[in-house]
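Sample pair:
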Amino acid sequence: MAFGIKREELNKWKELVQKGDRIVFITHYWIHPKFPNIKTVTKAGCSDLSLLKEWGRQYGLKPEWIHKREEYPHFDLIGDHQIEILIKEGVFEQLERFSLKKLT
């Protein structure tokens, strides 16, 4: 279940993912029973699967982790790995907005 973002933000992310010329990020609050200490997830998406796979490799993300259920292929980033990637990618607005800090 996703919350904490506006419909317009989600639609813009979807539009940019479908464009397929770069990796696009969207962070939202998230509740999942497997991860009780995790409160947010960042979706890193791109419709160009080759680009998405290559991008993921630099962060140790395996191609089989790509969510392809929808028209918006993406990796789900959570926890410290999420924060490290957002910092390296310069996505500071989402780090600040969701008060993301390292867990360990």
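The mean pLDDT is 93.
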